[in-house]
């Protein structure tokens, strides 16, 4: 069983519930933090001291308070952690069930488990932790499992999110092309951007770019 587990969750009662459920497993050390910045610091410190964490369990939404944070969401935390700790196993425990967000976490950030925070969520999280410890297969709650069915949904990648964010800021396609070239992302041509945005509008049944941005915001993509 995992030796060290870190929980990133800003609600005390949920943290306590997770610890109680995971304490039924033979985990030597279970720590929790309420801020994403603190989670990253703990992971780095443990690694430097040669006592790394084996598993990160993180929520996606973190409420703002009087302490200013550089990392304000679980998505951002996971993106950074995956780059710095490619072998660390990551489980998401969240009420979020939008398929595009779940897809991004698995396809772009290579999370290992997604547990829907429901009435049976804690028991399901325990089951997910056991599976992650015993195998390399991913775990995904039945409630959101349809998100990973290619016949049921479009795969949204970081490039798409960036295009929609640029639209939300009022950039023209020519300007987006220039920014993509500076970021060394591809494709960068105006025709490629126009084609991809057309596909996104069709997939989301958006009437125009403004409508696409509105739908993307409603879905939590931007």
Automatic annotation (TrEMBL):
Stated name of the protein: DNA-binding NarL/FixJ family response regulator
Natural source organism: Lutibacter oceani
4-aspartylphosphate modification, residue list: 59
GO molecular function: DNA binding
Span of the signal peptide: none
GO biological process: phosphorelay signal transduction system
UniProt cross-references to InterPro entries, sorted A to Z: CheY-like_superfamily (IPR011006), Sig_transdc_resp-reg_receiver (IPR001789)
Taxonomy of the source species: Bacteria, Pseudomonadati, Bacteroidota, Flavobacteriia, Flavobacteriales
Domain of life: Bacteria
